[in-house]
Design brief:
The complex is a heterodimer of chains A (443) and B (443). Chain A is an alpha+beta fold. In chain A, 41% of the residues lie in helices and 19% in strands. In chain A, helix 9 packs across helix 15 and helix 12 runs antiparallel to helix 14. The chains are: A alpha+beta (443), B alpha+beta (443).
């Protein structure tokens, strides 16, 4: 656990807001994506990029924290955190030593809808690195020492979140929106549920979540298709075939209105939002373009212009479409002084209404298209980013030709499309708002 | 007003270094003193432009803290030819993204955009180097934004507030003891005159470094830089020397309590040298020392305090070599449940004493060197991090050659060098020890 507070960073003009739009980008012409199947029958996507002697692998297992059993919330997260803490004959120290000997870099994390594994490996030690990663997935030890150490780290992080207004607001927002559904529970669990997790829970989480049929795999680097196929089979050799989880769809909707949670801090944080649009909705791309204008486009967005640039109310304000496996949301956030939160929320609600009633101007639409289509190819400038995008396209079932179709889809959006989707999507009266802090004039 | 005839422009001999076969680095200097570094990476048709000014928070007039960062925000306002906020909107409408950041020694502005739009961003960046038009109203609104930024980053975070207190105690006289964002009571007084004076004094080509990285050719960058930056008159006024540290004779201790703290920890910072071109091995030895002490599960601190004694859930060490005047070397420990800060601090002291006494093992040294070689290869995957590396180095007075020699210097570090650095610099009188605790908790 790296404690963010201990890392001194420079001051940035605008912190990258977590969870900005999900539809990030892809290059059109240059990328040759191959949609392949390993000799053992596992599908994977590959881009060969021979110029640097490294291989990037991204593995995403569908499922994740939303499948945590009741009372064991946080087990996917803790399991992911322990995959690198010893496997097979190697204890935690032996595993770390072996990984460093090959100069490999592994990352493991769990979100609501997936468990994600990323690996950066040198071509010169690829076989040894793959063997280590395969062992981590197939036979993690979950020894008592790392289990208690990582559990304590998770508990400390949960405790720290209790006085961070942004974290409190996000957790409270989801808890109110999804009572009784796994999305209403924090992915890292509660202190009680994390304390209750036993080694058996971790073993069963591993065999439930890390199954071959749930894996979406993207590989980018100095490796050919035959070697990549063999690598995929070696990586997944110790996993059951299993079945990919079938997400259901919840009809739960966040409760309208403003709720205040008291916390003694100088600046309040707000999370706001309501239902969104699933990616397979015919208007999804129009909504994506609309969001760029409303709150997704940083300094090009209306929310930033009205809240920050004109009034100096906040350092950052943003909105984004969140397409989750079992629901779709339209969410946003702002942090502002306690005395100014009420005004900030009024301004945001007014922009919600204006967009719902009027849509965007021809100039705004034009600028949005120029940015979204122009930025698309720029996001494919590293192996790691391309590998992430290969997985994203598989998760969203977009097809490998999506990269060639995507800019045309954006270009095709008309003023009427945006007006229609804005009227359909944006419901100022449905906004569910959680404010954490000591806001003045809000009950 | 064109000052430099193009033929006289290249003052420094053209220097070409090869980081790898595909990432060629070229540097030259324009006639007006602006340094230029070109890093070629032809994998994608993308370019990053960064302009680094050799001025940061450590150059601020005493009592006016925060003006360097405040001014960075103002650089996005109107110029004699562009409207307020137009800079970022034009970049976005061309599919690019832009931002800026301020640190102790430098302020940098950067854009990432399609390679064929380099001239557009260069023209606009050159424009705002001299032609900014500031008004009281613009300054007042932005001051409100910056106070919200300070709320969000610092005042809402006891960990960030504690970091400020640590720095203020570590530097007895040097302005590194003042936070980059500024003290709140001083930000509140910053106005138009502060901004104008800062702009006039520091924003000039002879105080700037241009880094262009991506799908570009050095001769084309040279031509464009001459056209757009070349005509700007140099200031002839390099940054003034800063107040330096006197000998530090007394170990300092801090204890901070805040009701929002849920997880206490102990920090120890030592005043150490920054990279010195005359003696780069000293900084390299400190860098290696920080990795051996506190990077990863197999580091000394983690192995001893977390794994063997199980009294901490997190430990670490870091060293900031790349400052202009001084570095700080910091270690930390986060107690396990039921353990107190005194026990963890004593254990850290034992680990430090062991390294001072016996130095690192050959195995520890080999691990760090191996990972450092691999980091060079992985680093090639991100052209943005290459631009960052060269820009930050040149902005604090290092050369392209220094950057390229650094990996070899690291490889040349011996166990004796590491032990000598530990023995010389990890001494009580250079240190500040801080405990961050929850209010009400017994010390």
């Amino acid at each position: 656990m790296g404690m963010a507070a201990l890392v001194r960073t420079a001051c940035f003009r605008l912190a990258a807001a977590a969870g900005f739009g999900l539809l990030v980008a892809l290059p059109a012409a240059a990328l040759e994506i191959r949609d392949l199947t390993s000799p053992g029958g596992t599908p994977f996507w590959l881009v060969e990029e021979p110029s640097i002697p490294i291989v990037a692998v991204e593995l995403s297992f569908a499922g994740g924290a939303r499948l945590d059993p009741p009372g064991r919330e946080g087990v996917a997260n803790l399991m992911a955190g322990l995959l690198e803490e010893g496997s097979g004959a190697l204890d935690a120290i032996a595993f770390a030593t072996a990984r460093d000997l090959q100069s490999a870099r592994f990352g493991f994390s769990a979100g609501a809808d997936s468990v994600d594994v990323s690996a950066r490996m040198l071509v010169e030690s690829l076989d040894e690195s793959v063997a280590l990663l395969a062992g981590a997935l197939a036979s993690p030890r979950f020894d008592p020492e790392p289990l208690e150490r990582v559990r304590a780290q998770v508990l400390a992080a949960i405790a720290e979140d209790e006085t961070d207004p942004e974290s409190v607001a996000a957790k409270a927002w989801f808890a109110a929106a999804f009572p009784g559904h796994s999305y209403g529970r924090p992915a890292d669990g509660t202190p009680e549920s994390v304390r209750a997790i036993a080694r058996e829970d971790l073993l069963s989480a591993r065999s439930r979540l890390l199954v071959r049929s749930a894996a979406r795999i993207g590989i980018v680097g100095a490796i050919g298709s035959e070697a990549a196929g063999e690598m995929v089979d070696r990586l997944l050799a110790g996993l059951d075939a299993g079945t990919a989880p079938e997400p259901g769809r919840t009809d739960l909707a966040p409760p309208p209105g403003i709720r205040v949670i008291a916390l003694d801090v100088p600046q309040s944080a707000a999370v706001f939002g309501h239902l969104g649009l699933p990616r397979d909705d015919p208007d999804y791309i129009a909504a994506y373009v609309m969001n760029y204008v409303l709150g997704g486009g940083g300094f090009a967005s209306r929310l930033m212009d009205e809240v920050r640039e004109k009034r100096g109310l906040a350092y950052g304000v943003y909105s984004y479409l969140a397409d989750m496996d079992e629901t779709a949301l339209y969410l946003g956030g702002v942090q502002t002084a306690n005395e100014r939160m009420a005004e900030s929320l009024e301004v945001i609600r007014a922009e919600w209404s204006r967009m719902a009633a009027e849509g965007v101007t021809a100039e705004e639409l034009d600028n949005a298209k120029k940015y979204l289509t122009g930025a698309f190819p720029l996001s494919f400038d590293s192996n790691a980013r391309i590998a992430n995008y290969l997985v994203f396209m598989q998760e969203e079932k977009l097809g490998k030709d999506y990269i060639d179709r995507r800019n045309a889809l954006v270009e095709a959006v008309t003023l009427d499309d945006v007006r229609r989707v804005a009227a359909r999507l944006l419901k100022p009266e449905a906004l569910s708002v959680v404010v954490v802090g000591k806001p003045v004039g809000l009950e | 007003m064109r000052l430099a005839p193009i033929s006289a422009a290249m003052l420094a001999a053209l220097h070409v270094g090869a980081a790898t076969a595909d990432q060629k680095v070229t540097d030259f200097t324009l006639g007006n003193g602006m340094q230029v570094v070109v890093i070629e990476d032809h994998r994608a048709e993308v370019v990053t432009q960064m302009v680094w000014y050799r001025v940061g928070s450590a150059d601020e007039p005493r009592g006016h803290s925060g003006i360097a960062h405040f001014f960075e925000h103002l650089m996005f306002k109107a110029t004699s030819t562009l409207a307020d906020g137009a800079f970022s909107k034009i970049v976005a409408a061309n599919g690019g993204s832009d931002n800026a950041f301020t640190s102790y020694d430098y302020t940098a502005y950067h854009q990432r955009i399609a390679a064929d739009r380099l001239e557009l961003v260069m023209e606009m960046e050159a424009d705002r180097m001299r032609n900014l038009v500031l008004t009281d109203e613009v300054v007042a609104t932005e001051r409100a934004v910056i106070l919200e930024e300070r709320n969000q980053r610092t005042d809402n975070s006891p960990q960030a507030l504690f970091g400020e207190q640590m720095d203020a105690a570590l530097y007895l006289n040097h302005p590194y003891g003042v936070p980059v964002i500024g003290w709140r009571h001083e930000i509140e007084t910053l106005g138009l005159e502060d901004a104008r004076a800062f702009y006039d004094r520091y924003y000039a080509p002879d105080n700037a470094v241009l880094v262009v990285a991506g799908d570009v050719a050095p001769d084309e960058v040279y031509r464009l830089a001459e056209t757009h930056y070349g005509p700007i008159r140099p200031s002839g006024r390099p940054a003034a020397a800063r107040a330096q540290e006197p000998p530090q004779l007394a170990a300092r201790r801090l204890a901070m309590r805040d009701a929002r703290v849920r997880q206490p920890y102990v920090l120890r910072s030592y005043l150490v040298p920054a990279y010195d071109p005359a003696n780069p091995r000293e900084a390299a030895a400190l860098d290696v020392l920080s990795e051996i002490l506190g990077s990863g599960l197999t580091s000394r601190l983690a192995r001893t305090i977390q794994l063997d004694r199980k009294i901490a859930i997190d430990t670490g060490a870091y060293y900031s070599a790349f400052r202009r005047d001084a570095g700080d070397f910091t270690v930390y420990g986060v107690p396990a449940p039921g353990q107190d800060l005194a026990t963890v601090e004593a254990a850290i002291d034992e680990v430090l004493a062991g390294l001072i006494e016996s130095g690192p093992t050959e195995e520890e040294l080999a691990r760090v060197k191996r990972l450092s070689r691999a980091a060079l290869i992985f680093g090639q995957d991100s052209i943005a991090s290459q631009a960052q590396l060269y820009g930050s180095a040149l902005a604090v007075g290092r050369t392209v050659q220094d950057v390229q020699n650094w990996p070899e210097v690291l490889q040349s570090v011996t166990a004796g060098d590491v032990r000598a650095a530990a023995r010389r610099f990890l001494v009580p009188e250079r240190s500040v020890t801080g405990w961050l605790e929850s209010a009400g908790e017994a010390g």
